[in-house]
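Field notebook, page 730. I keep forgetting to write these up properly, so this time I am using the form the group agreed on. The chain and the ligand, iron/sulfur cluster, are recorded exactly as supplied. Prediction of the bound pose follows.
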Amino acid sequence: MQRTEPGGERKLRVGIACNIRQKTKPGGRRKTLPDEEAEFDEPETVEAIRQALLNSGYDPFVLEASADFQEKVRAQKPDIVFNIAEGISGRDREAQIPAILSYMGIPYTGSDTSALAVSLDKHLTKEIAASCGVLTPASFVVKAGSNIRAGKIHFPVIVKPNAEGSSKGIGDHSVARNMEELKKKIAEDMSSYREDLLVEEYVDGREFTVGLLGNGKNTKVFPPMEIIFRKKKNDRKHPWNIYSFGVKQNYREYIDYQCPADIPSGISKRMMQDAKKIYDAMGCLDFARMDFRLSADNRVCFIEANPLPGLAPGYSDYPMLAEFNGISYGSLVPEILSAALKRYQMKADGKKRSGKPASGKISGMDPEWGDWKWQYRNRIRTVGELSEIIPLMEKEKRDISGCLEKFRMAITPYYASLIRPDDPHDPIRMQAVPSEEEMTVTPGEMADPLNEEAQSPAPNIVKRYPDRVLFLVTRCCAMYCRHCTRRRLVGEEDHAIGKREIDAAISYIAGEREIRDVLISGGDPLTLSDEKLEYILSGLRKIPHVEIIRIGTRVPCTMPQRITPELVGMLKKYQPLWINTHFNHPRELTADAVKACGRIVDAGIPLGNQSVLLKGVNDDARIMKKLLLGLVKARIRPYYLYQCDMSEGLEHFRTDVRTGIDIIRKLTGSISGFAVPKFVIDAPGGGGKVPVNPDYIVSLDDHKVVMKNYLGKTYEYPNRNTEKKRREKK
Ligand code: SF4
């Protein structure tokens, strides 16, 4: 059943669950109402979704939501289902297919059963909206066989079937101007739709819709699109401007669409905020649309929620909204799928991390997921928390506990979400999760291999070169990397230096006039607050002889949420400022990480990368090439590749030095020169960085240099030792 690319890579199998619109009812019966299947999809829509998924590298196939849906799923074995099925009948019908999929443990796109079941009840949805402080027209529900209790409602009113979508049962004929018309209308609709009816005060104003895409803090809220009714002279058929099923079908005749709508920014913002409030309150997932009307006195009124909006290309409002906002249909469909894959901790390459939604902290569904302080607060620090994310045998739990007595663990939920839980050799896991091998200290390993403590002329300062210092401002990191050189420090309790210590270090630097370059490090300086960081930067910037300030940070890789517009806005005030970050594996270059790095570069701050060569993580030229090309694409300049230091407990990460040299040899000539980092060993004992790159020189004398190129071919270059010749002439 699993299909593979010619290269052997498995494609993700995506079933498209749908109800396809039929010309006649099963058994050849004619449809009784013109909009009976208004919610169902045309075969062209299903095909467009299939094509968009196919073009994005997935293996899509149609799963029609018929009575034997469960059997089809069992037979076809989708990895995930792209759900647009409306279900068959009843006010829970949109939730039926998601309920079956949940029961079978199959992930699916879009909102879950609860949100879909609730949203189909228009009155209940309005109550939820009102409970969030969103304004919605007064309304009441008429139940079959009960009397009308209009209460304080004002005419005109609009009567809608309470549990239908796609404007079903709604048109200009639905508006009642007085009680007599209302009673007549209710009697008609009751006999046609046989369900509860919503009677709502009619808002005589402009109509808008707002689209949402994604989850939590990463939800995109599109600006409102206006549905503009083209007034036709003497159009008695459409006196009330109702965006009905009939009008939608003939939208070219009746409607103009405009996005962003021509409304004051305050009104637009209010609509977007209200849309997000309702999206969150209802627990909508991946994508949805919210409809509004604007009253004559400019009040934003919520009308309806659509957690399963239509996706007919060139027809439905949602793809139109996306298109207005630069997202083509071909991108929109895979974006919806990506949002779901992210929630389920699944990878688009077909390697499923878990058949069920990732639990708790790392599900990506917490509304605060995009907030770095939430990420930092919720780091995984105990074996118990870890075992909720990855399966751990009892022995592993004991080993990790033993390890934690010496070296701390902290993994941001974001970084933990990148771990493939079923792979004990996953390169992301290896960098984050302790292993028993860390407890073995081999000969030659040291607590402080770079002799930083002996080279510290003042507290929190390391001075190895005459014109540069290292300023250690904190011992805290977003994640405690298992291969950390300074594990002797960051292995202790979280500790950032105080104001007095900062002042003392800055006054030391101010007194040493030869220092022109300060590298702020730790720990990770970007775990400090913006205010504290600015205090340090402004203090250093006041020193005339400090020309360059650099920051070493792994935060763009382990907690990219930290790179906020406010942070980069502050940093750019202290130019010239350079940042070096630390990516070791191409899978760390996620969309979030690339976006964070883009923010730094867009602020005019040069961004470099230092990787550590780690056995089992990146000691392979193909992996390294993918990483380096990814870095360059993200506008990050590869700077150093470090041989793993001689810190205690890192023997299992260390490679033969020749491995690094060989990787650089394979990369040289195969990718652009500026994408190849310098391979260095930080000399034990504090000798500084020593380049250990492949040697291309065969011989060199006063006459010529004989060298080999990256293909191993030999070339000669004449050597003109002009100084020697000048001396000989004399
Ligand atoms: S972020 Fe840097 S200092 Fe912190 S643990 Fe990782 S390697 Fe060490």
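OBSERVATIONS:
- Residues 1-8, 24-31, 352-357 have pLDDT under 50 and may be disordered.
- DSSP finds 25 helices and 25 strands in the chain.
FOLLOW-UP: compare against the apo run.
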